[in-house]
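help with these tokens:
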Amino acid sequence: MTPEDVRRIALELPGATEKSHFGKPDFRVRDRVFATLPEDGNAVIKLTRDQQEVMCGAETTVFRPVEGGWGKQGWTRVMLQAADEPTLRSALVAAWRNTAPVTLRKAFDLAGG
């Protein structure tokens, strides 16, 4: 997968917009960041600690906690070259759900997302 795939999938999610976070592209829902594209060609997503543990344990070549305090808050690096589209989409949807307000999440669930 590529940063352009991240952009395409992220912007398909309800209410998602692209902005900039410290000069790097990020993706937000209601102005809250759920994913970023750092310069290294990978992605970083906002997971819960439990989600991070499961994903990093199940897909060790795809997911890694971000180093330091951000990683302890659930921020997780997605190694795009090792990811396939269903895995990337699932991870981005999880990050979006963790960030989106309840009303938007419910509307997305009702629409079959």
Remarks:
- The chain has one domain: 3-101.
